[in-house]
Structures are given as structure tokens and as C-alpha cells.
Design a protein that fits this description.
The protein has 272 residues and is an alpha/beta fold. 42% of the residues lie in helices and 14% in strands. The protein has eight helices and seven strands, in the order H-H-E-E-H-E-H-E-H-E-H-E-E-H-H. The protein has a seven-stranded mixed beta sheet with strand order 1-7-6-2-5-3-4, with helices on both faces. Pfam families: Acyltransferase (PF01553).
Length: 272
């Protein structure tokens, strides 16, 4: 798997072509979701195996398609990317925590960790283009309820890797991420290990309340860096559950403030 690409810095960097390619990417994503719902998943449902086997097939299919969608956008000139430490993702009971600067962060992570569960916006279950994939993969809808927290804890205890964005939504450019304590509470109750992933996007794109056609003047570069593992038990012993959750959440918040403050100009981009 090629996890490194080279950024291009020509003036405006084929702006109108990238605008067209971005529109095409959105169309491909939407049509792909419909095809999965109407064609692919009904065929997978005819294959032998129970509910768990069907879930595994659905997640593997979605992850494979998501990664090739990223490759499609790279080939079309929309973006470049670098992933550091991907081999440490996908372990049983691993809670993968990431910041959320862009609309396609989840596409990157599910493409890299194809058997992971994921906490996603609850509205995706009502969207005609996405409700098929998120339903068949048995992802967890983030409705803010205690039932959602319990479900997330259960899937970790079952040994599934789980992807979660503690911010709950994309962070507007120029603002620091604000983490909700739900992710910390889930980690303390169910995770074998916590692994942070820092996502940097330069220049910013597909941020909160930003229309798809407002693309930057040069090609976007994504950098995903897998950080050192965090043992949730180191925080679980630091007092009652609410206090431990608060301390873990504060630790994660400070970790991301430090990582995101790193000067992106020092990031190396090896040639393919």
C-alpha cells in the first residue's frame, strides 16, 4: 500500500481541473453509496454466514472502497497524503481517537482500519446515500444517549477496534479542538488501549460550514500520524469514574494541542 505522496506547489495548482475533480469525487461517493445499498449489500446478504459474518463482509467492502476512493482523489489531483504508523491500527479492543478537521477524515481511517467500528453522525442513518453502508456495517450512531455510550463500550469489550472523534463535529479553521468527555468515559470502561491519530490538512478544506466548491488555491495535503499508545488503566485508578474521565479527557486535549501546534513546515513528504 502506497502511503506517501508528493505535494505539488504550482501557482493555483490546476485550480479549475481540481474543482471539476472535486465535483466528480462527490458524485462518485454518492453514487457508490447508492450502489452499495441497492446492489452490493443485497448480494452479500445471499452469502452464507450469520450476522457477524455479514458485518465483517460489509466493513471489509466499505473499507476497501474507501481506500480506493482516496486513491481516486489522489490520482485525480484533488489531494496528496502521508500516513505514519498505520501498521499499529486495528488491534482488538483498540480505541482510535482522532481530531476532525475535514469531511473525509473518517474515509481515511475506515479505509485504513477496515474491520473497525466507528461512531458516526446519527443523521447518516437517514441520508439515502449513506444509510445503507453505515447500517450494514453496524456502525454506531452518535445521538448523545447513554445507550450509544453503552454500545460503544460493548463493541470494545467484544474485541472490535473503534474509531471515535471526541469533538463530535468538525473543528472550524483557526480554532482549537474541544473534546467531549464521552470518548474518555468509553475508553475507561471498555478499551484495551487508546491510540491517538493526529490529522493535519494543509491548506484546510471541507471544513465545517464550508461548501464543497470552495477549494483552496493549491492541492491539499493530508498527514495522519499515529501516536504512542495510552493505557486507560493509568487513569482509571486516579479516582472515581467522573474524575478519571475528566483527567483522561484533559490529557487528550493537551496532547492534541501540542501535536497540532507542531510547525507543519517541518513535516517531510517523501517521494512515492
Amino acid at each position: 500500500m502506497d502511503l506517501a505522496t508528493t505535494a505539488v506547489n504550482r501557482p493555483r495548482d490546476a485550480y479549475y481541473w481540481r474543482l471539476l475533480a472535486t465535483a466528480l469525487s462527490f458524485a462518485v461517493f454518492g453514487l457508490g453509496g447508492l450502489c452499495l445499498r441497492l446492489l452490493v449489500f443485497p448480494l452479500l446478504a445471499c452469502m452464507p454466514g450469520g450476522r457477524e459474518r455479514h458485518r465483517q463482509r460489509a466493513r471489509q467492502t466499505i473499507g476497501w472502497l474507501f481506500w480506493h476512493f482516496i486513491r481516486f482523489m489522489k490520482g485525480a489531483g484533488v489531494l496528496t497524503y502521508q500516513v505514519i504508523g498505520a501498521e499499529r491500527l486495528g488491534r482488538p479492543g483498540q480505541l482510535i481517537i482522532a481530531n476532525h478537521p475535514s469531511l473525509i477524515d473518517v474515509v481515511f481511517l475506515i479505509g485504513l482500519v477496515r474491520q473497525a467500528n466507528c461512531v458516526v453522525k446519527h443523521s447518516l442513518f437517514d441520508n439515502p446515500f449513506t444509510r445503507g453502508p453505515v447500517g450494514e456495517a453496524q456502525y454506531i450512531g452518535n445521538d448523545g444517549s447513554m445507550d450509544m455510550l453503552e454500545e460503544a463500550v460493548d463493541v470494545l469489550r467484544q474485541g472490535q477496534p473503534l474509531i471515535i472523534f471526541p469533538e463530535g463535529t468538525r473543528t472550524p479553521p483557526g480554532q482549537v479542538p474541544a473534546f467531549h468527555r464521552g470518548a474518555a468515559a468509553i475508553a475507561l470502561r471498555g478499551a484495551n488501549i487508546i491510540t491517538p491519530v493526529t490529522i493535519k490538512v494543509s491548506p484546510t478544506t471541507l471544513t465545517k460550514n464550508e461548501p464543497w466548491y470552495r477549494i483552496p488555491s493549491r492541492r491539499v495535503h493530508f498527514t495522519l500520524t499515529v501516536g504512542a499508545d495510552i493505557d486507560p488503566q493509568a487513569f482509571a485508578t486516579q479516582g472515581p469514574a467522573p474524575q478519571a474521565s475528566r483527567k483522561l479527557n484533559d490529557y487528550l486535549h493537551q496532547y492534541y494541542l501540542k501535536e497540532l501546534a507542531t510547525d507543519e513546515r517541518s513535516t517531510t513528504r517523501p517521494a512515492p
